[in-house]
Amino acid sequence: MARTRAFDENTERYDAWFERHAALYESEVAAVRGLLPAEGAGLEVGVGTGRFAEPFGIVHGVEPSAPMREAARARGIDAVDGVAERLPYPDASFDFVLMVTTICFVDDVAAALAEAFRVIRPGGCIVIGFVDRESPLGRHYLAHKDESPFYKDADFFSTEEVSRHLEEAGFTDLVFRQTVFTAPGGAEEVEEPEEGHGRGSFVVVRAMKP
What we know:
31% of the residues lie in helices and 22% in strands. The chain contains 7 helices and 8 strands.
């Protein structure tokens, strides 16, 4: 069952976060941009209010929260009702799938990645952005889960766990970028992403479908 209640009831609060934390948001966008294909048909799973689909020109999105879908549509995204585990698209429909801070909210990670694999064309890729559970920000979110309507029911993953899930789904050739190197709440300027993982709290991984 999709965990939408907090997002249904706090859509404006969620969207305002990106304005209040502009440097953090732009840091994450920069890290995703480094691994996302510049061309091709893309789909964002868990598109939310469209804050990541919009800057990358992604016009297709899946989102189970109705208020969030409406906000995404206001940004020009064809946001449809659906969940990661059952994508409403035929096989091999897209060149890439993007998931940003979505993996911690899906009910079944294996099923979600299997669906992404299904709708990606051979030679395409999946790009996942997430907060590493073992990072300073990840530990902060875990310690304060009950204080957040959004992360209260989230399941955070380490980079190693996400990598294993991707490989088990059939993806190969994993490449990583990382950003958000400051303490939680401390970023006042955009932080340039670096290759790899283990130092930054926000990790982006790209994996290929053979």
